[in-house]
Amino acid sequence: MKVQVAVVGAGPVGLTAALALKAQGITPVIFEADAEDKLRPGSRALFIHNQPLQELDQMAPGMRQTLIDQGLVWDARRYFYRGRQFFVKEYDERKRQIFGTSVPQAVTEAALRDACRAAGIETYWSAPVAGVHVDDHGVEIAFEGRDSVMADFVVGADGSKSVVRKTAGIKLIGNTSDSRWVIIDLDELDEEPARKELTFHYAHPGVGQRNVLMIPFKGGWRLDIEARNDEELRRLSTPEEIRAWLPSVMDARYCDKIAWVSTYRFYQLVAEHFTDTHRRVLLVGEAAHLFPPFGGRGLNSGIIDAASAAHAIAQSIASPGLEQRKILVDAFSRDRRAAADFNMESAAIGVDLMAPATILGRLKREWLALRSRWSIGAARALSMGPNGRAGGRPGQSGIY
Ligand SMILES: Cc1cc2nc3c(=O)[nH]c(=O)nc-3n(C[C@H](O)[C@H](O)[C@H](O)COP(=O)(O)OP(=O)(O)OC[C@H]3O[C@@H](n4cnc5c(N)ncnc54)[C@H](O)[C@@H]3O)c2cc1C
């Protein structure tokens, strides 16, 4: 089998890459390791910003509204330090229009799958890629238990353990932070609260001074609590323990509404290059970068990676030749690597505030908390935990 472009991985970023290619006039083929009916539960990447929503809409007209209809914009963001509120930001109608939407990843993936089907993009399910072999003539994609496929280009969207990245010889660099979180999705109560607000607590006094984040979405809540070590991570995530501590942070009736529990560790990793030496493999999403989840820079920037990779591939196909391909694909790789570095730094600001690693960091946070009593600037700076710095690279129009 020979294809022009193969996308490896039918996660949200791979599906987006396929739609972006289709919008550029190329019909790719997707290879996905999992079965089509495998459940992929959980809120996971819960927030899609306006810019990625607009990108999606260009690839699949109507997608922005589809996700907004199934999403929610919170009424306010509210921040507490050791139980004392220090910052609140209301979301009025104008902010709502340009903000984006809080929508569980499962909903986003379902909408993207529908759009791929409608666009006639073929997905081979239960087709785990074993590796890629790249030379100047193309990419040989090897599978477990089926014949190889040849492709002119491969988009590696196979997530954090990407075999495409590894077998194309691209290194991942960075580190793992000590920050570990339990993540719980809660179904909404029969009578919904009048207001739905994102709430972040530094050192919540009701749960042993642990950091706690609560994010509403349509039909439920995402609750994150930070654990101090691996033993705590296991303990805090058992249903009995959750029912014991949850009433200290939310209405006790949510104890009967636990829908999904998972754990998460913070990584700060980025691929050295987003392409291989032959410029035929382009990495996107978590195959290329892993950030702390708060701030939503993972999936949001993955959507922009996908659009950018599709553009580089379409241009390379339109003007063949190694030199031209190098220029176009290298531009993609450099730009998305720079964006990933910026995203990682931005997220790190939030991590440093939530879990300062040094005495100086802890003192700085206490000082900010003290000043936040009278200084709105200090309150704003402290509100950069958990999400990190907002906004985008200087000189760039987009935020990812
Ligand atoms: C518990 C949890 C909580 C999270 N919370 C947040 C959050 O709050 N905010 C946020 O922004 N992000 C969050 N994330 C991260 C978010 O889920 C990712 O950013 C997003 O899924 C990345 O999408 P992706 O398509 O790049 O990778 P993935 O979603 O990992 O998709 C990769 C796809 O490739 C497939 N695949 C893998 N190997 C192969 C192979 N060899 N051959 C073929 N297919 C293969 C996989 O089956 C999968 O379908 C969370 C993740 C988890 C697990």
TrEMBL record:
Residues 2-341 form the FAD-binding domain. It comes from the Bacteria. Keywords: NAD, Oxidoreductase. It holds the Pfam family FAD_binding_3. Coiled coil: none annotated. One of its GO terms (molecular function) is oxidoreductase activity. This is FAD-binding domain-containing protein. It comes from Tardibacter chloracetimidivorans.
